[in-house]
Specification:
Radius of gyration of chain B: 14 Å
Order of helices and strands of chain A: EEEEEEEEEEE
Number of helices of chain B: 0
Structural class of chain B: mainly beta
Largest sheet of chain B: 6 strands, mixed
Shape of chain A: globular
Shape of chain B: globular
Largest sheet of chain A: 7 strands, mixed
Largest interface: A-B, 23 and 22 residues
Distance between the termini of chain B: 41 Å
Oligomer: heterodimer
Strand content of chain B: over 45%
């Protein structure tokens, strides 16, 4: 079965640079979520989108923005990167119609390292 | 706000033994979902099992089962006949119906020894 696709899988940036993370949900999934997992920590919710509209927002810095496009893929844009932004960024998707309501399936994550 | 607590930072058992991971949560909501996710060394987040709060019957998936005690706000995971491949970090997670975000516990690092 198709899974959530994230790209790139690894990313190295310098401080103050910009990064864009992409997420392609499972086909026919209409909701996308972004999480940040720091070293040795549990995942923290950043933001979610349902049918291309922002549906919930967590502890996402103002330097970060995200959107969901007409083909349901999502992008997380991160500007003015800081050392503390180094983390594993997960995208997850779910569907209200696929019989799996409220079950989020995670992608492999993007490992971001800020130097 | 909802909180999820996993009081066992690390656990270790022998292969083929049964192990139970604990999770408690705090919420004033009545309709919600509970999950266990597994994160092996690859760091992929893998869904293990899910429980709807309105269901009294405990969820089961092969060797994995839960003990859901709604009144006590407890949601433990039992792994039977543990295997080396079960070695991973296990996260308990909570989601209010319609909230569209997961709240995770701190995780329990489980090691299965040969």
């Amino acid at each position: 079965a198709a899974g959530v696709i994230q790209s790139p899988r690894h990313l190295i940036k310098e401080k103050r640079e910009t990064a864009t993370l992409k997420c392609y949900p499972i086909p026919r999934h209409d909701t996308v979520y972004w999480y940040q997992q720091g070293p040795g920590q549990d995942p923290q919710f950043l933001i979610s989108f349902y049918e291309k509209m922002q549906s919930d927002k967590g502890s996402i810095p103002d330097r970060f923005s995200a959107q969901q496009f007409s083909d349901y893929h999502s992008e997380l844009n991160m500007s003015s990167l800081e050392l503390g932004d180094s983390a594993l960024y997960f995208c997850a998707s779910s569907s209200l119609l696929a019989g799996g309501q409220e079950t989020q399936y995670f992608g492999p994550g993007t490992r971001l390292l800020v130097l | 706000a909802q909180t999820v607590t996993q009081s066992q930072p690390e656990m270790s058992v022998q292969e083929a033994e049964t192990v139970t991971l604990s999770c408690t949560y705090d919420t004033s909501e009545n309709n919600y979902y509970l999950f266990w996710y597994k994160q092996p060394p690859s760091r992929q987040m893998i869904l293990v099992i899910r429980q709807e709060a309105y269901k009294q019957q405990n969820a089961t998936e092969n060797r994995f089962s839960v003990n859901f005690q709604k009144a006590a706000k407890s949601f433990s995971l039992k792994i039977s006949d543990s295997q080396l491949g079960d070695t991973a970090m296990y996260f308990c997670a909570f989601e209010v119906q319609g909230a569209q975000k997961l709240v995770f516990g701190q995780g329990t690092r489980l090691t299965i020894n040969p």
